Amino acid sequence: MIPDLEDIFERQARRYERPLDAWAELEKRAFGQAVGLNGYTIVAEAEELARLSEAKVAGPVLDLGTGRGWPGWLIAERAERNLVAIDVPVVGLQHARDAFLARDLSLRTQVIASDGMALPFASEAFSSIVHTDVFC
Fold first, then answer.
1. Cβ atoms of 61 and 127 closer than 8 Å
2. pLDDT in tens, 41-67
3. When comparing pLDDT for 124 and 38, which is higher?
4. Which of the chain's ends, N or C, has fewer CB atoms near its CB within 10 Å?
5. Between 88 and 40, the higher pLDDT residue
6. Are β-strands 128-130 and 61-64 bridged in parallel, bridged antiparallel, or unpaired?
C-alpha cells in the first residue's frame, strides 16, 4: 500500500509546531548545547558534513530536507559556503530562515519550498548536496 503523500506532508508539518524552547532545553540536557535538532544528526556528524563541503570547487551547497535549518546553518558557517535550503513544510522553513538570521547567515543562505522529487535547479548548480534525516 502506498501511503497518502498529503497525509505524510501534514504529519511532517505538525512536527514543527512543537514549542522550540522545550526542545532547546531537552537538547541542552542531552547534548550540552541546543542547535535546533529535528532529526538524528548530531553535532559531530554535522561538523564532518561541513568539512566535506569545503570542496576545492567553490560553490553553493544544497541542503535537501533542511527542516529547521540544522545542520545547514553549521555547514554554511563552517564551510563558508552559500547554502540553499529546501524542504516541504513551510513552518520548518520559517524556523530555518530564523536560524540563519540569528547566526548572521541570511546573506549566504536561501530558503525554498520544494521537494527532492522535482528540484527547481539547473544541473550541476551545486558543489555539494547534503541531506540528513530525509526519508526517501
1. yes
2. 778 888 888 888 776 667 899 999 998
3. 124
4. N
5. 88
6. parallel
Which pLDDT score is estimated for 10?
77
Q: CA-CA distances (angstroms) from residue 41 to 17, 23, 67, 120?
A: 20, 15, 12, 26
Dihedral angle of Cα 68, 70, 73, 76, to the nearest 10 degrees:
-130
Task: Kindly give the residue spans of alpha helices, DSSP state H, lying in 18-117.
Answer: 20-31, 43-52, 72-78, 90-102
Distance, CA of 117 to CA of 11 (rounded, Å): 19
- When the pLDDT of each residue in the chain is averaged and rounded to a whole number, the result is 83
Q: Which of 129, 71, 136, 57 is nearest to 99 (CA)?
A: 71
The grid coordinates of residue 88 equal: 516541504
Rounded to whole angstroms, how far apart are CA atoms 102 and 41? 20
The H or E element that residue 111 is part of is: strand 109-113
Q: Which domains does the chain have, with CATH numbers?
A: 5-130 (3.40.50.150)
Q: Strand, helix or coil at 63?
A: strand
Q: What is the pTM of this model?
A: 0.79
